[in-house]
């Protein structure tokens, strides 16, 4: 089984925030696969399971807010006896221009609190990440903390749909 984790914040008011790029991408992949989300209180997460000839893929959206994402992910890995090689994380990244995607294994958090929580709870940074560029604000008076909590435009959301399709193809043939 592979565990595909989108990082984001729960609640409708955050649903289109740049910080929710991970949630948006895994939502799109789940939609493309015809999956529906279930609330799994055991893991404080929303989950969706995709069964294929090549194996099972469990999609996860922790509902503990970004900074505590590692709690849910570590519980799921332990429960299903999965290794770090089975983990794929999708998160926003201000260090890349909007729409740029970088796949990495074993990279540090780069100041991302959700990824930092994962590294802390897993005791390692040796997992696969898809870092989705959300860019930085053109207006230098806007703090990064505020920028990531601002909504994507509709055209940016549309571009994330294409990014989700590309990541989906990579994950399912991995």
Topology:
Blueprint: E1 2-6, H1 21-32, E2 38-40, E3 45-52, E4 55-62, H2 69-79, E5 87-93, E6 101-105, H3 113-122, E7 128-133, H4 144-147, H5 154-172
Parallel strand pairs: 1-4, 1-5, 5-7
Antiparallel strand pairs: 2-3, 3-4, 6-7
Structural key phrases:
single chain, 174 residues, alpha/beta, Rossmann fold, 32% helix, 24% strand
Commentary on this structure:
This protein has 174 residues and is of the alpha/beta class. It has one domain (2-172): Peptidyl-tRNA hydrolase (Rossmann fold). Helices cover 32% and strands 24% of the residues. It contains five helices and seven strands. The chain has helices at 21-32, 69-79, 113-122, 144-147, 154-172; strands at 2-6, 38-40, 45-52, 55-62, 87-93, 101-105, 128-133. A hairpin with a 4-residue loop joins strand 2 and strand 3 (45-52). Helix 2 runs parallel beside helix 3. The longest helix is centred in the C-terminal third of the chain and has 19 residues, at 154-172. The chain starts with a strand and ends with a helix. The relative contact order is 0.21.
């Amino acid at each position: 089984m592979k565990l595909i984790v989108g990082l984001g914040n729960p609640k409708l008011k955050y649903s289109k925030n740049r910080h929710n790029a991970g949630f948006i991408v895994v939502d799109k992949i789940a939609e493309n696969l015809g999956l529906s989300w279930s609330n799994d209180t055991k893991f404080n997460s929303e989950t969706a399971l995709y069964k294929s000839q090549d194996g099972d893929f469990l999609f996860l959206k922790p509902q503990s807010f970004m900074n505590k994402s590692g709690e849910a992910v570590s519980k799921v890995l332990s429960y299903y006896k999965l290794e770090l090689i089975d983990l794929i994380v999708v998160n926003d990244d201000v260090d890349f221009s909007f729409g740029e995607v970088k796949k990495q294994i074993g990279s540090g958090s780069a100041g991302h609190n959700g990824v930092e929580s994962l590294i802390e709870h897993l005791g390692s940074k040796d997992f696969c990440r898809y870092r989705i560029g959300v860019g930085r604000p053109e207006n230098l008076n806007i703090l990064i903390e505020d920028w990531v909590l601002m909504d994507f435009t509709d055209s940016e959301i549309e571009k994330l749909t294409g990014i989700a399709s590309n990541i989906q193809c990579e994950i399912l043939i991995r």
